[in-house]
Amino acid sequence: MPYKPTSLRRIAAVSTLAVSLCAVLTTPSFGQAPAAAAPPQPALVARVKPVIGQGALRFRDLNGDGQLTPYEDWRLSPAARADDLIARMTIEEKLGLMLHGTLPGTGGALGMSASGYDLTAVAALLQDKHINSFITRLSLTPAKMAAQSNLVQELAENTRLGIPATISTDPRNHFHYVLGASGMADGASQWPELLGFGALGDADLVHRFGQIAAAEYRAVGIHEALSPQVDLASEPLWSRITGTFGSDPQLSSVLGGAYVAGFQGADKGLTPAGVMTVVKHWVGYGALPQGFDSHNYYGRTARLNNAQLELHITAFKGALAARSGGIMPTYPILVGPTVNGKALEPVGAGYSRLLLTDVLRGRMGYDGVILSDWAITRDCNERCSNPTAAAPQRPMDIATNWGVQELSVEDRYALGINAGIDQFGGTEEVDALIAAVKHGKITPARVDDSVRRVLITKFAMGLFENPYVDPQAAETVLRDASAHALAAQTQRAAQVLLHNTGLLPVAPAGKKVWLFGMERAAAQAAGLTVVDTPEAADFAIIRAESPSEMLHPHHFFGSRQKEGRLDFRDGDAAYDALKRASAAHKPAVFALFLDRPTILTNIRPKAAAILANFGASDAAVLDVVLGKAKAKGRLPFELPSSMAAVAKQDPAQPDDSARPLYKRGAGIVQK
Q1: Burial class (CB in 10 A: 0-12, 13-18, 19+), 117
Q2: Is 373 a catalytic residue?
Q3: Which of 64, 122, 338, 614 has its CA 20 to 30 A from that of 112?
């Protein structure tokens, strides 16, 4: 069942369209007269094309012909408007909508920039290639971000049909940051990773987070969230566990549905004030041997059986029930499962008709946009498959064409679209897509199906009436004190107290503390006296991240992701700090950012308290240590007892290591 929130309150500053366009989704189909009780006039903003009138009503004249055409008529349904617009588009304009490019920055890799977009390059993508869905990787102040979005929309409005651009982003409201997989945003409220929400298991809180984050996105001109990541965290070595809700498929389903409903504005699909979600990664991404991520050539295969595949599918059910606007297939080749008695094709999931058409569209009934993950049509060159210190993998060498290396780009497009893809992410190679249609490898009807899905989302979000945002209002929305306060409160509550010999809570009055991995100023602000040696302290606080190894230093993502061991060893700085405090006979709080299921077997005997977090500021950790806030979380996955146990567990099966030190759900919930 879809998530049913206890409260449907929204942030008032999301958009002036929130109420005025709500009736669009229920107006008659094209060809019928509008209902007698017509929806109210929406707020229109046009900067390039004129506005035309029909009696007291106003409409944007997006094709500039001086007439009200059906796709310009906000009284009609998104589906009816999409059908009319498709009939007016050239094949080149349609195919441009099937690519999801990157907004180019003024210098910097992958669209990064400290100043803004390269508008000449943006105009070329819009006008010449007809691409108008883009990921943004800018991180500017809210007002500057909004102003840059408006410049993109002006260029989009100036195209022949005035189709507004859809701007997407990786997650922007959390702590973890990997270029190409997550983002950072100046001024946005900062929450724990999704694992923190998994630790709390509070669907209403996830829904509220979605509302707040969606308001922040729309305020700066972002319409599409490349999230949530509802992948099942079944392999403890996997570097992307931090972006999931954990290892419980049922909980992942419930929280995924709440996330979609919060972002999109309802539990039954996308609304005018909402942000389209793209749930990822369909399906089985968490079942990677040794946790080697399939952004990398060496992690291109996942293994699981049919029963395990069903567990991984279960995690998606809530998001699908809430009618997420988009779904993103996973990267790896899935080895082992069968569908309708047929072995899955030996290709990445974006090329698997069995996974996309037979299971996702057929069995699960999904009819939204299927957006491929990034770079699946690109060639994996030598720097991609076998980088070296002398020739490391660079951003331009990123490619994930697993299982289709021998096919041309043209044939990859044909295979993916005929498998079920509607949009290809991270590519702007439109010529090969045009060739595939010209050569009869993709039918015009199949193109229209995908374009219709993409256009419906744009109409549903009200972008054809007003794609512009107010830069000053963006500053207000993103710096809303109540939103930041709730995010800070969640950082505190989502922590998990795993071990406490009576040290916590610490009364700060007169206490001296020795710190490792924590800012001195934060402890002083909390009322503690900071000393330079553990011997001079009353107690110690040691902040740490999960251990890891640099196993693939020359791969772009391999050098940025955590791989390898999960246990602390001599030479690890945080572990050495803990030993130093123990040798001085001073009780220590070991405060761990639990971005992977860390082995704490040799930590527990040396620490007076173990406090896990999933993204928390120093102030948030200190508040729990000092009793000013309560840790209310429980582990969203088990913590193994040894690396030997990790080696023997099945990557596709959640929580199956022998004799785990802490089981999923462990935690001392503070009252």
Answers
A1: buried
A2: yes
A3: 614
